[in-house]
Specification:
Keywords: Glycosyltransferase, Transferase. By secondary structure, this protein is mainly β. The protein has helices at residues 63-73, 216-220; strands at residues 2-6, 11-15, 28-32, 35-39, 42-46, 52-56, 94-108, 114-122, 125-132, 145-155, 161-164, 171-173, 178-191, 194-199, 204-207, 225-232, 235-241. A hairpin with a 2-residue loop joins strand 13 and strand 14.
Length: 244
């Protein structure tokens, strides 16, 4: 959980592991014996074993200070279509929605930071995007329609534009992609500890481990199976048997 605090002039961010924030929203505090760190232009406030935290009378903050705190927690990331002429020169963050046409697999930097390179097509225009750190480990597939927020546009030395993720980037599957398909399963395979179904019309569906983590031989003994598969781009989210 991340909290944003303001003294009316400066915004401080505080991170705490878990689902309970260190500070309550709308409450004013007096703090002693804390640590400050300036990381990537943002000041972080760290609470230690010796920190004293006192609640005090409410402090009034200007609307400008409140907006600055909100922006520090999650800066604005306007959505663009991809056809804007100034898309790589406007500055700030932006959000794109499009279909993944290519992924080059997760690679690691020398400092063991994961990076996922992908090619996203928006409004028939393609963009190269590098997702860094935790967001690079998002479960994505070629063909997924995704919404990626808080991308940083940049111009490479060869003059081409590219997007990089930021500390605020999120990747979500776009709405309207979940499908229900009734299928006759005639084959089962296990590839890299992940189960795959083959249908009678030669379509392959991926079954994640959290959906099925039993023995493949048990499924084979039940073939053929008539199932309803709830899926996104043939990545199964839920399985239901079809009553004959």
């Amino acid at each position: 959980m991340v909290s944003a605090l303001s003294d009316g002039t400066t915004v401080y961010l505080n991170k705490k592991e878990g689902f309970t924030p260190e500070f309550e929203e709308g409450v004013s505090y007096i703090l002693q014996n804390y640590t400050l760190s300036n990381t990537y232009g943002q000041i972080y406030l760290f609470i230690g074993p010796g920190t004293l935290k006192f609640k005090t009378v409410p402090q009034e903050l200007s609307e400008e200070a409140q907006n600055a705190a909100r922006a520090a927690l999650c800066p604005p990331s306007p959505s663009v279509t991809g056809v804007e002429a100034d898309i790589f020169s406007r500055g700030g963050y932006l959000s794109l929605q499009g279909q993944i046409k290519e992924m080059r697999g997760v690679r690691m930097t020398r400092t063991h930071v994961p990076i996922l390179d992908l090619h996203l097509v928006c409004a028939e225009k393609g963009f190269d995007i590098s997702l860094w750190r935790d967001v690079a480990l998002t479960d994505l597939y070629v063909g997924d329609e995704v919404v990626i927020t808080h991308l940083r546009p940049c111009i490479l030395s060869n003059g081409r534009g590219k997007f990089h993720s930021s500390a605020y980037t999120t990747v979500k599957i776009a709405e309207g992609q979940v499908q229900d398909t009734e299928a006759q399963i005639i084959g089962v395979s296990e590839i890299n500890d992940t189960c795959h179904f083959l249908t009678s019309d030669s379509v392959v569906y991926v079954i994640p481990q959290y959906i099925f983590h039993g023995k493949v031989d048990d499924l084979i003994s039940r073939l053929p199976m008539r199932l309803t598969l709830k899926h996104i781009n043939r990545r199964v989210l839920e399985i239901q048997s079809v009553k004959e």
